[in-house]
Design a protein that fits this description.
Largest sheet: 7 strands, mixed
Shape: globular
Number of strands: 17
């Protein structure tokens, strides 16, 4: 039975009837448990607020440390190795499907399974808490990740994004490839890896999110056995000042593609983390403007300027905020000019309340349907934790949105005079 003395909070959604638990474990780790009765599988994700942009930092107000680009991704690779074998080999024995990723602002380790959940969770908590770096193993990994970097350098989808970010950002490290460069990773040493690990892989800087048929009692039983008590570390991250203005408005590169790729980016100033209301308003606004039911989508398709690959997203994190549109087009420059003119006209003449009604219902429906996916719930719980947003509040805010909220948000974003186009031909 669960210890009655644990720090437990229960969160309910009045709109859906769903609930989840949050436990502040004695080790310092925040644990989220979203039980789904009747589901066969369970998804677990263990993450730290540490990504590729965190290359200049201090711990407990100590000395400022600067490390090579790509070290967060490098550390992710190295943690799967230990003195007693590879974590993937251990997962193979439990039948779990495991993976990991490093993004700009977080690193996450995850698995999904329909059997042997507690054994798989034990593997996850064990290897992420057991760093093992030697000169020999670090040198070996440089060749492996060097090949990965070269592969990404040849990837049109990857390069079209990073070429855009170089157009938009003067100083912010978001413009640097998550994996770094062959030159930067060659500078990584075991001591640097331990310095980064001991700073950012503190359990107080991490979260564990579990969703599916497992129970909170099962999670806590493993957590109590496997989690090591941690003293909290005060982490300060340092970023250079970033101007509002972009660097340049166009980038072009030739790579093997059947149809040219493009990314358009509208850069904005980011004063603080977006709230749940901000995210709800942004998602409804972008659906109004650019979804398959929008005026501009139909116009561009009728002119055969875009296809079904056309997409849009809010791209944000500590110190950066951009709205990105992308896809395939035989004439990216015409797409770019048409969309900018479309935004300009809407800024002058106003948004459509009918489009607002349609998009609000669509975004609300998508948010509700995501509650049927254990992976989506786990990932969104992690995102909510790291952005200090309560998980259910996003759905509540979509429901409460007004047309005036959307108009206000539209005035804050999509500055067509502060945008760039990246093209891969």
């Amino acid at each position: 039975m669960m210890d009655k003395n644990i720090n437990l909070k229960e969160f309910h959604s009045k709109l859906t009837g769903d609930k989840y638990y949050k436990v502040k474990h004695k080790s310092g780790l925040n644990i989220y448990m979203y039980e789904k009765e009747g589901y066969n599988s369970t998804y677990a994700i263990f993450g730290t607020r540490y990504g590729s942009i965190n290359t200049c930092f201090s711990a407990n107000d100590g000395e400022k440390i600067t490390v090579p680009d790509g070290i967060a991704h490098y550390l992710e690779h190295k943690l799967f190795e230990s003195e007693d074998g590879d974590a993937f080999t251990k997962y193979a024995r439990t039948g779990a499907n495991a993976n990991a990723y490093t993004s700009f602002d977080k690193t996450c380790y995850l698995f999904s399974t329909s059997q042997n959940f507690q054994e798989s969770l034990e593997i996850l908590l064990d290897f992420v808490q057991s760093p093992y770096f030697t000169e020999e193993t670090v040198a070996k990994e440089q060749g492996i990740i060097g090949q990965e970097i070269k592969m990404y350098d040849d990837s049109p989808d990857w390069k079209v994004l990073f070429n855009l970010l170089e157009c938009l950002y003067h100083n912010h490290p978001v413009k640097i490839d998550i994996a770094g460069t062959v030159e930067s990773i060659a500078k990584i040493t075991p001591q640097m890896l331990y310095d980064c690990y001991n700073t950012f892989y503190n359990l107080n800087n991490m979260a564990l999110c579990v969703c599916g048929k497992a129970t909170l009692d099962e999670v806590l039983e493993v957590a109590d056995r496997c989690l090591k008590l941690c003293e909290d570390v005060k982490i300060t991250n340092y970023f250079e000042d970033e101007p509002y203005e972009i660097v340049k408005d166009f980038s072009e590169q030739n790579l093997p593609v059947a149809v040219p790729l493009f990314n358009m980016g509208f850069k904005s100033k980011r004063e603080k983390t977006s709230s749940s209301k901000d995210m709800a308003a942004l998602d409804v606004l972008l659906s109004m403007l650019f979804s398959s039911t929008s005026e501009i989508y139909k116009e561009l398709q009728d002119k055969e300027l875009i296809n079904q690959s056309f997409n849009y997203e809010v791209f944000e994190g500590p110190g950066f905020f951009t709205i990105i549109l992308g896809g395939e087009s035989r004439n990216p420059e015409e797409v770019n000019s048409t969309i900018k003119e479309y935004i300009k006209n809407l800024k002058e003449n106003g948004l459509s309340i009918d489009d607002y009604d349609i998009s609000k219902r669509a975004v609300y429906g998508d948010a509700l349907s995501a509650l049927n996916s254990v992976d989506a719930i786990g990932n969104n719980l992690m995102e909510s934790h790291f952005t200090n947003r309560e998980f259910f509040s996003y759905i509540d805010e979509i429901y409460k949105l007004t047309f005036e909220d959307i108009e206000k948000k539209f005035n804050e974003v999509l500055d067509y005079n502060n945008s760039a186009l990246s093209v891969i031909r």
